[in-house]
Design goal:
0% strand, mainly alpha, globular, 21 helices, Proton glutamate symport protein, 413 residues
Length: 413
């Protein structure tokens, strides 16, 4: 057991992936025999979706703490992150619609998903506000759950002293859920083994072609978010040279890629913000820790992209209303994503559930993508780190807390 747990989880997942491919190709009857393991893994994911969405979004908003932080620097920071997150979701969705990475994929044992009777936009809007919160939780009504989570988080913040016990409870529950997610993730190699074996037994190696297209979309969307959106904000809003910015933050981007963690990148980001970009310490120490919690451009982009990938795999053609709902729920889900590897895959259920896709179908998409998610996670952490430092630079510029000479490299550190 010690030897097993000493191996990094992603390596165990890759090993299970390779073994699943071999079983699917050489022993398809064996793939059918272990199908129950994949089914159990899917049920574990479904079990976590509702509590993870409700608690992490509420705890993320509640972590803003004193409502006075929403004024001045805090308010500008939150507004900028909300903007970049919305843009990131739309870019991910755009690349998904343009390149169609999920087109033609067949999920083993899953028929094309048929949506229920058409619902008018007015009824869908009314459905966001639940009549019975418990009923919404039991049914997994994601729009209603997100609405309740946002209200709960905001109410906890504005309640001041009286709300502190609730904030502590939410943060404690979030911490417990993170450990629960980690426990479930330890089952991932066995679930991936069964799911991939059945997918390959039913469809052959062609099932991986779409994953390659998905990876290409992640790279293109990440580059677009950084080199177009972040660069435009720096050049036209802050009126600062872009090349100098990216040259100054390269250390943080390398750490972000290697660790796939915004939290692990924070110490390096604080250093380069002050030493290379000339951001005043009070602003850097306020914006960057907040950004490590809510500045998730990479996650937002990935959730938007993966949502389109899933719809294409399930044979669903989204209309304008569905795309709008996915944009909003994707941004909110990214804001509350837990700081653990592959947590964005759990938030995918919030986006798809909001447009009527069942948790079973979502879990199968997660099972297909999960073996490759480590590399994708490393890639999408880079635009999140870039967003954090971009917003810190914009806030410093607006608050007269930027040493422009240091930023431009005219002084030594």
């Amino acid at each position: 057991m010690r030897a097993w747990f000493a191996i990094p989880l992603w390596k165990r997942v890759v090993g299970a992936l390779l073994l699943g491919i071999a079983i699917g190709l050489l022993w398809p009857q064996g793939a059918a025999a272990i199908k129950i393991i994949g089914d159990l893994f899917v049920r574990l994911i479904k079990m976590l979706v509702v509590p993870v969405v409700l608690i992490t979004i509420a705890a993320g908003i509640a972590s803003l703490g004193d409502p006075r932080r929403l004024g001045g620097i805090g308010g500008r920071t939150v507004a900028l992150f909300a903007f970049t997150t919305l843009v990131a979701v739309s870019i991910g969705m755009g690349f998904g619609l343009l390149l169609q990475p999920g087109d033609g994929i067949v999920l083993a044992g899953v028929a094309p998903h048929v949506l229920g009777p058409a619902v008018t936009p007015a009824d869908q809007l009314l459905g966001i506000v639940p009549v019975n919160i418990i009923d919404a939780l039991a049914k997994g009504d994601m729009l209603a759950i997100i609405f309740v989570a946002v209200l709960l988080g905001i109410a906890s913040v504005v309640s001041g002293e009286a709300g502190k016990p609730v904030v502590a409870l939410l943060q404690g529950l979030a911490a417990v859920l993170l450990h629960l997610v980690r426990i479930v993730m330890e089952v991932t190699p066995f679930g991936v083994l069964a799911l991939i074996a059945n997918a390959v037994a039913g469809n052959g190696l062609a099932v991986f072609v779409n994953v390659g297209w998905l990876a290409l979309c992640v790279i293109l969307a990440s580059c677009t978010q950084m080199l177009v959106v972040h660069a435009a904000l720096l050049r036209f809003v802050a009126r600062l040279p872009v090349v100098r910015f990216f040259r100054g933050i390269v250390d943080a981007l390398i750490v972000a890629f290697s660790t796939a963690s915004s939290s692990a990148t924070l110490p390096v980001a604080l250093r380069v913000a002050q030493d290379n970009l000339g951001i005043a310490r009070p602003i850097a120490s306020t914006v960057l820790p907040l950004g490590a919690s809510i500045g998730k451009d990479g996650t937002a982009m990935y959730v938007g992209l993966l949502g389109q990938f899933a719809l294409q795999a399930l044979g669903i053609v989204p209309d304008a209303w569905m795309l709008g709902v996915m944009l909003l729920t994707g941004a909110l889900a990214a804001f509350g994503t837990a700081p653990v590897p592959s947590a964005s895959l759990f938030m995918l259920a919030a986006m798809l559930g909001a447009v009527g896709v069942g948790a079973e179908q979502t879990a199968l998409v997660v099972g297909l993508v999960l073996p490759f998610d480590r590399l994708l996670d490393m890639t999408r952490t880079v635009p999140s780190a870039s967003a954090n430092l971009t917003v810190a630079t914009l806030v410093a510029r607006a608050e007269d807390g930027l040493d422009e000479a240091r930023y431009r490299g005219h002084t030594t550190t």
